[in-house]
Amino acid sequence: MTELKTYQKDFIEFALESKALRFGDFTLKSGRKSPFFFNIGNFHQGKALRRLSSFYAQAIKENFPAFDILFGPSYKGIPLSVSTVMALSEIGVEVSYSTNRKESKDHGEKGVILGHPLEKDDRIVLIDDVVTSGLSVDESLSLIHDISESQVIGLVVSLDRKEKSLDSDHSALRQIGLKNNIHACAIVDIDQAIAYIKESHPEIFAGDLLDRVLAYRKEFGSRD
Questions:
Q1: Contacts of 39 by beta carbon, 8 Å cutoff, 6+ apart
Q2: Model's pTM, two decimal places?
Q3: Of the candidates 29, 18, 92, which has an alpha carbon nearest to the alpha carbon of residue 57?
């Protein structure tokens, strides 16, 4: 496992402080029982959203040295794309944001796209909270390809749970990257978070919690 960068350590601390990343007993939307849970919805206040977007900005700058548009799928991607292009501007990266409506608008600013229109040869990075099935990414890619000749070059999410996708031993995030020939990455992945917390906050893994977390990762974790 590569050494964590300062912003990645800070993001894990931030996720713990905000209770966005929690350990215990949780039932996921899929019905699966998990010893950890991540909810980006906990970053809902102005200060928290500003910090979150700064972490996204650092990960994007590191992974995508040249692109034109940050695209945030509705609905969670809308505030993420807007706040993150502002955070990127603060570190010297000037790009535009775009997002989509769920329904097309036939008056005023017509169509389904909000923000910068998608144009030929635009290089697009998608931003989202987390990836589970990858359905929202597929919908975004289909939309972008249907209305423009833009090129989607990547995807960034906050946390990669690194669980096996339905049809491979790769994580859902990794599988999306392979399937669409794009660079798919996260600010941190769950294995990085677990290793950091084990060293810096061992009290969080009191009792048999660490054993349960590791057992869950062994059973459901991807091989990436």
A1: 20, 22
A2: 0.91
A3: 92
